[in-house]
Amino acid sequence: MTARYEVVQVASLGAAFDARLAAHYRVLQAWREPLGLAAFGGELAGPRVAVTSVRHGFTQPMFDALPNLQAVCSWGVGYDTLDLRAAANRRIGISVTPDVLDDCVADLAWALMLSAARRTAVGDRYVKSGQWRAIGQFPVATRVSGKRLGILGLGRIGEAIARRGAGFDMQVRYHNRSPRPQSPYPYETSLVDLAAWADFLVVACVGGAATRHLVDAPVIRALGPRGILVNIARGSVVDQAAALAALRSGELGGAGLDVLEQEPTDAADFADLDQVSLMPHAGSATHETRAAMADLVFDNVAAFLRSGALLTPIADREMQA
Ligand code: NAP
């Protein structure tokens, strides 16, 4: 009789990871099938652990298809695409890949802040298209150093963004649902007040229904015509139509967006806005960080199959939320 599968993989995490996992465990590679889990029958009774990614997610039908599932190991730190309620109902643990991506996502937040303020992407096009020679001096832009940095979501990534502010001589304040004990930065109870204070408002909170359109028209108006909005969290946190309208009318000074409400997109609405810098959801996308994320998924699978415990589970508070 063929041995049961131990792991089911619903998303490929790259050739190196896929091969490593398959070399250590009996893996049902459901991602190879266009129908996914629906392509299988009795084999689905085997796996105790599933591997997925934040992009691929893990939905109620996936939980339903796997009767003996005990853990889901996801690649990425967001969990807006993972059905936490379905997992909690069956006491299935979920791990994500925190900490290892903080620096690279924070670096990208700063790249977007600098690009939106100093127009580096526009300047690149200006030089390469011959405009420098043809037109002359590039328009003056907005100063970054010494300004006020507001952070919505002072968690792991938000902290890494805030720490970098010291190198730019910036004051930092933040807004969370509740103040962080021992944080050196002043807490603002109101997001509108934080936006009114800040020159740069960086969004680094969780995505999902609870934070949908947290950055709405009043917050954007409070940030104002000289303010710059940066979002490296999830597109859903910002009311994109309100942001776009404010950018067009001049009520908002600029934006740096790694994430948008629809992904992928050609973002045609933003195409003519030089005060906006866009990235294609690439916060963690460096060779080093992607390798560390894959290692952490592997380590979670290994730890669970060895001991029944995940290394980096989503906290109970979030699972119950
Ligand atoms: P984290 O450590 O859990 O921090 C999340 C922060 O959000 C916490 O400070 C939390 O504070 C705050 N928060 C949660 N709900 C809130 C609400 N309703 N209102 C205000 N603040 C709220 O998470 P992280 O590791 O820093 O990651 C943050 C997010 O970044 C992820 O969820 C993911 O969506 C995004 N991300 C994006 C990329 C990318 O490629 N662009 C890569 C990685 C992660 P309280 O609990 O006190 O409210």
Automatic annotation (TrEMBL):
InterPro entries: D-isomer_2-hydroxyacid_DH, D-isomer_2_OHA_DH_cat_dom, D-isomer_DH_CS1, D-isomer_DH_NAD-bd, NAD(P)-bd_dom_sf. Residues 111-283 form the D-isomer specific 2-hydroxyacid dehydrogenase NAD-binding domain. Its EC number is 1.1.1.215. It is an enzyme of class 1 (oxidoreductase). It comes from the Bacteria. The keyword RNA-binding does not apply. Residues 48-312 form the D-isomer specific 2-hydroxyacid dehydrogenase catalytic domain. Keywords: NAD, Oxidoreductase. GO terms for molecular function: gluconate 2-dehydrogenase activity. Belongs to the D-isomer specific 2-hydroxyacid dehydrogenase family. This is 2-ketogluconate reductase. The lineage of its organism: Bacteria, Pseudomonadati, Pseudomonadota, Betaproteobacteria, Burkholderiales.
